[in-house]
Design goal:
With about 190 residues, this protein is α/β, with parallel strands linked by helices. The chain has seven helices and six strands. The chain has one domain: Rossmann fold (3-Layer(aba) Sandwich), CATH 3.40.50.
Length: about 190
């Protein structure tokens, strides 16, 4: 049986999308796991044509786990991602996401630009849906040495002066988060 994990993100300039791609690589490094890259409708701008399909509620309902990412917007998740979650009341009422594993990731233009509060804000709807939210354990040495992104709350990137290129630590921590999500989802499916 293939474990289908959605990597849902909103990205304005490409940094959050770059993290999503690394998380997907981590997911697909686990046997029998498939990463499904999805984005949300950007109702605020016509400048960004989506590079991945826009998620549907049915896809979210059917997934075995979720990684969700957003750029930092004033210490919070971006409005297009929040708008998507505001439409999930039906899934909440039916309990379709209960006990599915989830994790979060973000990107900001400065190291102290609100990454941790953004990660926490993205976890709130996941908790309300009854998902099993996880982070990155300190057993990954990159958490101790990173000079850019990466937190125990989720994968992060610091896009100094618009730099979309992830550091080696940021890439590794994102892949490790994807691996952890996939490994957990596989264990839960087998139970």
């Amino acid at each position: 049986m293939i474990c289908k994990l959605i990597v849902l993100y909103y990205s304005r300039h490409g940094s959050t999308r770059a993290l999503a791609r690394q998380i997907a690589r981590g997911i697909e490094s686990i046997p029998h796991c498939e990463a499904i890259l999805r984005t949300v409708d950007d109702f605020q701008s016509n400048d960004n044509a989506p590079t991945d399909p826009i998620i549907t509620l049915e896809e979210l309902k059917q997934c075995d786990g979720l990684a969700m990412g957003s750029p930092v917007w004033f210490g919070n998740m971006a409005a297009p991602l929040k708008h998507f979650w505001d439409q999930t009341s039906g899934l909440w009422l039916s309990g379709d996401l209960i006990d599915k594993p989830a994790c979060v990731f973000t990107s900001s233009s400065s190291l102290h630009g609100g990454q941790e509060t953004t990660l926490q804000s993205m976890k709130l709807p996941l908790f309300h849906h009854g998902m099993l939210v996880m982070g990155i354990p300190y057993s990954h040495p990159e958490l101790h040495t990173t000079q850019s992104g990466g937190t125990p709350y989720g994968a992060t990137h610091v896009a100094h002066t618009g730099n979309v290129t992830l550091s080696s630590e940021e890439s590794e921590l994102a892949r490790q988060l994807g691996k952890r999500l996939a490994t957990t989802a596989r264990k839960l499916i087998k139970e």
